[in-house]
Amino acid sequence: MLSKPDTFKFHIDELVKHGTDGKDSVRAGLKELEQCGYIKRYSVKEKGKIQSWEMDIYEKPESGFPVVENPTLLTNDKELTNEKEKDIKRYIGFPTDDHVFLNIYNSEFRRALNRDHPKITEQQLLHIIHHMQLLLEWEITAEEFRQQVRDHFETLAKKNNGSILAFIPSFMRRFEIPYTGLGFE
Known about the structure:
Strand content: 5-15%
Distance between the termini: 42 Å
Helix content: 40-55%
Structural class: alpha+beta
Strand order of the largest sheet: 1-2
Radius of gyration: 26 Å
Order of helices and strands: HHEEEEHEHEHHH
C-alpha cells in the first residue's frame, strides 16, 4: 500500500482480489492498522452527506502511538499471549454418567434429534450441574424431568440446536424454581 502514489484510491474489493485474504480479513486488518495509528480514515462530504471515505497511510504510527515490536501486554497481572481461543476454552463431550438428569436429557436429545448433544465447555458444565442440583433440592423426580424434556423437544423451534443450556431457564420456569443464573459467566 505504501508503494502506491499518494493519489491512489484503495478499495477493499481490489485488495481482496490481489491478495490471499477474504473481505472480512482485509477489513479487520485495515481496522487494526487504523487502531495502531498506521491508517487514518476520514469521510469526504458534499452538502453535509458522506460521499466517500479516504485514508492516509503512514510508514510509522501517527497520533502518538509508540513504535513497539512484540509488546508484552499485561492486564490484571496476567500476561496475554497469542494463544488461540480454542486453547483457552476447552470443549468436552456432553457427560451422561455424572447425573441422572443429564442422562435423561441426553437420551431424549438423541431420541428427538438423532444426534449427539453439542460439546460444551467446562464452565458450561459447572452451570449445568449447578442447576441439576437445584432440581434435586426441589425434589423433582426423574420422571417429572423426563416429561418436561419430552415436552421441550416436541415444541422445539427449528433454529434451536436443542442444547441443555437453552433448556435450563425453561425447566426452571416449568418447575417454578427461581432461576439464579449462578455458575456461569
